[in-house]
Specification:
By secondary structure, this protein is of the alpha+beta class. It contains 14 helices and ten strands. α3 runs antiparallel to α4, α11 runs antiparallel to α12 and α12 runs parallel beside α14. The two termini are 47 Å apart.
């Protein structure tokens, strides 16, 4: 698009941009088009990468190479989510929480699309859409509609098992690291002899089951990413319940009913391996939100069952991905298997790429005569002491975690609008960051009000958070 920083070609001062300057028309539309379509359900989520390490031999039950030998490692992507959560919402609110994993095996991708509950609300696929509508947020209020949910649950007695789990402490896990994952559905194993066993997958946390205390709801992603960043890699034990094929005809419950569990006294858990998450995503969109999980993604040795909800999801999930991400969603790097089968969709819309992580310089430079500071400065000077202090605190809180060079650049902008504006934000930042020199800075600020001697540059230097430019070039004094 050429030079993005030079001023636009205009018909004159305070006149329109010329039509021949195509840069504004090219730069503006992406702002409304670049966002990835969110999931209809499980829209609010976070995730990380890691490995599955096999610790026990189950080759007598399955030919899947992912389980072929003890010590074998397979890459995995895990995503944690809230069923009815909106993007940016509270991860730890009371809800069924998704616990989904994509294993990048030698034979292709295997997706274990589960949750933190071993059961589900319904067994009949025809009820699924109605359930999702009852769980969604009301567009008029932005909140989940309790009446809609309880109306559906009260008319669906098979939901009682899931509702009981949801309303217990299991319904509000304080962290994704402290919750179990379950495949939920009944799957199958096939061995070399052609024998089939019915199976249920369990992934049990090794971090312990912490109870919610009230302060974790907003910190799910920070908790997961922070633990990985400091080397406290979360782990889970993968296990599997195994039922001989013939037993399915004699159990007092339907083993293919997703609203039921298998008693462990009858079908104990066989340990398989350890799931460890040890790498945070490099980009939340390309690594997590473009990830497409589907129960239809299995590998040789792992199959399906007569579970009716599973059979419906085999088709519906892939269809949802095509709607959200396009026909080539499986070609995205995060979804691309090690062994790539021929793509049935050879052409069409939606070509994907991995965007760079660095932010580009904003287009458009500052034109001679532009005054971007007088009116913001006037607005600041209209505020009394209380609103000013609130403004400083809000800005300081919003700058938590922002790189130092960006903070310094923005402090300069505040200072150009009014020296007191820049100093106030700098002071709030210092207090928030708990700098040891905070008392000395306050003393200097007090002295500057009396003598007018201190400059914004000096205050900023004392605070060790960079320089704050004043409205004029050089060393404009603090407002008295």
């Amino acid at each position: 698009m050429g030079d993005k920083t030079s001023p636009n070609a205009a018909a004159g001062a305070r006149r329109p941009v010329l039509l021949r300057d195509y840069r504004p028309s090219e730069a503006s539309p992406p702002g409304g088009r670049e966002a990835t379509a969110v999931r209809v359900m499980h829209a609010n989520g976070c995730g990380a990468f890691g490995t599955l390490t096999i610790t026990h031999d189950i080759t007598r039950y399955t030919t899947a190479r992912i389980f072929s030998r003890v010590g074998q490692q397979t890459g995995v992507l895990a995503r944690f989510s809230a069923l009815a959560g909106a993007p940016g919402g509270a991860g730890g609110e009371r809800d069924v929480h998704g616990f989904t994993m994509k294993f990048y095996t030698e034979e292709g991708n295997w997706d274990l699309v589960g949750s933190n509950s071993p059961v589900f609300f319904v067994r009949d696929p025809q009820k699924f859409a109605e359930l999702m509508r009852a769980q969604r947020r009301d567009p008029r209020t932005g909140r989940c509609d309790a009446s809609a949910m309880w109306d559906f649950w009260s008319r669906s007695p098979e939901s009682l098992h899931q509702v009981t789990m949801l309303m217990s402490d299991r319904g509000r896990p304080p962290s994704p690291r402290c919750m179990n994952g379950y495949g939920g559905h009944t799957y199958s194993f096939w061995n070399d002899a052609g024998a089939r066993h019915w199976v249920k997958f369990h992934v049990r946390t090794r971090q312990g089951h912490a109870l919610p205390t009230g302060g974790e709801a907003e910190s799910w992603q920070l908790d997961l990413c922070g633990a990985i960043k400091r080397g406290a890699f979360p782990r889970w034990i993968m296990g599997v319940q195994i039922m001989p094929e013939a037993d399915a005809a004699t159990t007092p419950y339907n083993p293919f009913d997703v609203t039921r569990v298998w008693p462990h006294r009858d079908y104990p858990l066989h340990e398989v391996g350890i799931v460890e998450l040890n790498r945070n995503e490099a980009d939340g969109v390309s690594d997590i939100e473009l990830a497409a999980f589907s129960p239809s993604n299995v590998v040789p040795g792992i199959g399906f069952s007569p579970d009716r909800m599973l059979q419906a999801r085999i088709f519906s999930y892939a269809d949802a991905h095509r709607e959200r991400l396009g026909a080539h969603y499986a070609a995205l790097p995060v979804n691309r298997p090690k062994i790539v089968p021929p793509d049935a969709a050879e052409d069409g819309a939606w070509r994907f790429f991995v965007p760079g992580t660095g932010a580009a310089d904003p287009p458009g430079g500052q034109r001679a005569g532009d005054d971007d500071y007088t009116q913001p400065g006037n607005l600041y000077r209209l505020m009394d002491h209380g609103p000013r202090e609130l403004l400083f605190g809000n800005i300081a809180a919003a700058m938590d975690g922002v790189p130092q060079d960006i903070v310094e650049r923005q402090l300069a902008q505040f200072g150009r609008a009014d020296p007191g504006y820049g100093n106030g934000v700098a002071r709030a930042l210092a207090a928030r960051r708990g700098l040891k020199k905070a008392r000395g800075i306050n003393a200097r600020l007090m002295h500057s009000r009396q003598s007018g001697a201190a400059t914004l540059q000096q205050v900023s230097t004392a605070m060790s958070i960079g320089s704050v430019s004043s409205a004029s070039a050089g060393t404009s004094q603090l407002a008295q």
